[in-house]
């Protein structure tokens, strides 16, 4: 009963601290400003919560047609929230509130509103769990709670939860993993470690990688710093740790395997820049990732506390990770040996929290002399940093604020050490908690101002810059006009690629870290579709190329009235509002298409992008076949029939030197046939500047290219730009030097597209429910193959007239399969990759874990 009461007090105290730790953002919430970053926070965090909640609420757990051009939920959204325990619990709670009519729709505005309350619950959980773990390791409740607060209220928690909310979930699992390891060392019981490993792997595969690196290092350090008696049987411990690891992985298989499969089949170019071993960061004053608490430094430099094994363990761990902090090479290793990312630094906060907890637990060991010496060292460290190392001024507001907190911390510890009375210790604990709460709120203020989080307001979320009323009304008019659920609308607000999810329609754009590699390859390499913005984590539009819109269900387009961008062939205006127009594609092809004509990817590899489009119109390009049974339509490269003129630039040996702003070259096309509707200009373009992003203009078309230093550069420099047929193609670039080569020019009159449109027959029905598609098709032309504009990915299965057929990757990124003559009853089903195998593995591992844990009780 006493334990239960203490746990209740702990929960209440943790909730109070969590609320006080969010005071700044609670005030912002009252002013309709949200604890959500203005970039990824609004584009990804609240957006993906919206789509996942709607999916789960409707019973659709596996596939989303609305995510870009379509994608598996467990493989492409597992990096975010699809298997996040906190999100799932939040979703259940919200579902209950909706069922009781307490709240309305769970749109992006709702999730932005809810973000601070979810954060308070998360932070409460972190403090409670961490306190229990430290207490289990022989720290009294008050120092354990104080250390846990330093962990939960660390700067990196608020940075993570504000900008990339799911990052912060990882902080819940670190103390659980430590608890599991300590259970093995102290009691030889693996149950908690198996559980902790399983939930870590299920919750988020990326941070499971980071957390498991930490726990392996923790075990190694723990191996050499014993904390309990009878820890000599190293072989027994090794067996328990290995067994726990395999069983935890096995239990997580149903979520972990699809997530890792999605990660491994996501396109990311290799990081090509060198990674330095050392980089300076001021971790005492203004680091974005970690600010060392003064109390930790005072305890560390007192030296006498190193006789306490738990303090020694956590102070050595802390020092180890602090050293790592200064190495971009380590940051790269924690990011899968890719670009350096400092997402792992909550590990430092946890280690420091442990040192604080066990240091305060034994602070009575610190003599007055030691405390004076430690205080002098700490003051020299701070003043020296200001004067000799960084650009801070002694009398700057930041310096004075930090030095004031340092002085108060020193006084609190001095008072406790010199008095050595219970009341003095209580004053020290209360003072330290107030300091960390004040610092947390000060950091939030910095996020709001310097980090521009204050822009994430209700007004912004309801404005035309994010999700405007006029835009939503226009979309509703399209839905009222056309109830078909499979067409796509080319529309996004400015650069917000996830607008289709925000505004609830099927679009042609997405922004996410894990995307279908075949789709990215389609855009970057196979068809060189320009998206208007170079990126490894986005795709958008079809580059105004009419064939692609017609092939892949691009039926409508919304444009701003003042837009200067050209309109693809075959689109005509059908609706308009004050600021926008809606265009409809008059040549959109059926969702279900069949053909007798096969082209192998190898055979069309060397033809132009326009010829590849012809092949997809008149047949199907199949990756897994050597058979090409039809003639490949090829148009001539007309570049030699044109005249190329330099404009404010010179051109020698494939190097274009632009000497005037918006200089470049003109391609005069007067000699070409006037019957052509569009021109396709293709070229290879590289910027030789070390660090300069730029905008390329081709007539009225604009596209942004990244700097050579950007970690999100694609390194794909082959461009195909469609422009209206005119007597001049103007290629314009900023001043600088560029490698420009392989100029090609093609023209099209869209006769093939018109022919395919007129050839359409209505001989099929389709029903799509969640992850299951049913098609009835009368193959009256005796075609061999069916193609669907559904992205190819592992997990799709198909039966044609109750016979299983192989799903093929066709047209570079989509699915196709053989069909029978005459009537075809087709069933397509999608489950996450290796779903059955992973369920079996999870079930077997769970059963085996129960048996092993019972035997070890």
Summarize the structure.
The chain is of the alpha+beta class.
Detailed description of the structure:
With 857 residues, this protein is α+β, with helices and mostly antiparallel strands. It folds into four domains: 2-452, no CATH class; 475-589, no CATH class; 639-753, Jelly Rolls (Sandwich), CATH 2.60.120; 755-836, no CATH class. The protein is 47% helix and 18% strand. The chain contains 27 helices and 29 strands. It has a five-stranded antiparallel beta sheet with strand order 12-15-20-17-18, with no helix packed on it. Strands 13-14-21-16-19 form a five-stranded antiparallel beta sheet, with no helix packed on it. A five-stranded antiparallel beta sheet has the order 22-23-29-25-26, with no helix packed on it. α7 (141-152) packs antiparallel against α16 and α9 packs parallel to α11 (205-224). The protein is globular, with a radius of gyration of 31 Å. The mean pLDDT is 93.
What attributes does this structure have?
alpha+beta; 27 helices; 857 residues; 47% helix; five-stranded antiparallel sheet
Distance between the termini: 23 Å
Sheet-strand content, in percent, reads 15-25%
Reported for the largest beta sheet, the result is: 5 strands, antiparallel
Whole-number total of structural domains: 4
Give the CA-based shape: globular
The residue-averaged pLDDT reads 93
The main sheet orders its strands as 12-15-20-17-18
Unreliable sequence segments: none
| Number of discrete helical segments | 27
C-alpha-based Rg, rounded: 31 Å
